[in-house]
Amino acid sequence: MKIMTGNRIAYILMLMTLLTTGCKKILDIDSTRTVGEKNMWNKLEDTRAALVGTYALTRAALVDNNAHWIYGDVRSGEFASPTRQDLKAVINNDLSASYPVMDALSNWRRWYAVVNAANIFLERAGEVRVADPRYTENNMTVDMAQMRFLRAFAYFYMARIWGDVPLIITSHDGTFENKPKDSKDRVLAWAEQEMLKAAADLPYKYSANDIQQPGNYYNEDENRWNGVLVRKLTAYAVLAHVAAWQGNYPDVASYTKFVMDNYNKGANSYISTETLCAPNGFFYEKKYNHLFGFNFDYGHQDGTFTGHLEELTLAEPVVSKSLPDIYMTKDSILSIFNEDKDERFYLDTLGRPGPERYFANFNGKYPIFSKVKVIMAATTDPSFRMFSSAVVFTRLEDITLLRAEALAVLGEREGAIVSLNTIRELRKLKAYDELVNGDLINAIFHERQRELMGEGHRWYDLIRYNRLRPNNQKFKELISRNGIYWPISPTILSQNPLLQQNPYWN
Prior knowledge:
It contains 22 helices and four strands. By secondary structure, it is an all-alpha fold. The chain has a two-stranded antiparallel sheet. Strands 2-3 form a two-stranded antiparallel sheet. Strand 2 (359-360) and strand 3 form a beta hairpin. Helix 3 (44-63) packs parallel to helix 8, helix 12 packs antiparallel against helix 16 and helix 17 runs parallel beside helix 19. It is globular and about 70 Å long.
């Protein structure tokens, strides 16, 4: 997330190093603490740099080794890999296979770097409030709300990946004592309460005369913060996901209702299919419609070869790469996109694909999943393979379908259908008809599969679906034996003798 440029970058990097070096026992990072803390936490610029640093650490945790998409999309088994044996292992749920990527994805080091950075901020920001009169009480309140949320989000994300994890909410002066795992239920309950506390203090928008954040935030106008920072709608949207993972559908209905009732206050809106899939559309740069996302700004030299979905999915003719790392078979595509005139993908009466928004090269050997294709600064030149797409955790369409899921589970059928049809009609599909589309809950999860493909949701959707409809014996056993979680990296286990491997992977 590129919030600062120029000579402040070195300062941010220095601070990020300081924030992460305290986690030596959990993170395997040397704690030399070469930057004296006496020079930190004295002025407004320190809190801004620390804030930016924590967002950057969160983004890194999501995209390092393409983690967000491998966890959420590849593991679902709906994509195939032509050549990469490590991705084939993920697809086959062989998560203890010996590949560097597997070990990296089993290591929670980056997420505890986020936790540590947030812990330090929450403990030290008050010192800046005392030392620098420019750092107002409101500025500190809003900053701390963001840190609470990012720390809670880190724990929510880890609980979905590893289940039980150590809950560490103080910096211990930069070092952590070895600590056993806390139950996932306790971690999720704590994360939910922290997000609620954060939501109470967060504005709908920054530098926009919001009652909870008056004036210009850190002396920057609204455009600087547009879609960049955690805000009130972010908190409620992610709270809906936390509650859904817990199976607490009354709260899912409550949290999604808040978002649906107030999204205009946050300048959010539904997006057209063309905008969703265009190179310069939804995934390009920063936008309010990223309810919770992290942008890469190519104009600020923030494009990369790795850490984007495109690295896994794109190949010729979209970019100059002979084979994609992952692709979806034609049979799978046709079983998922099985309704006529779907703007995302359909075949006409002659068997020809409609507009190539979700898939290019459909009639080739490897259909290319091209929904997300932000090459450099939204160029369409296939000779380049540097990407700058945003990683988006949630958006309004996701929350609308999550609300449909909750209402359907709660027996509020009419409301569930209204929410489902909001998305179906947006993609030019006919209204839901049980005779055509089948069981309502099945239809909702089918629509989530289509709408959110490639956005890191599918694995978790499958788990929720199989908890509601435990008819797949293999998946049922995987859930009952906690095989839905990843193994813990041997590196982590060797650092802390109080930790034990997740039993499924023993």
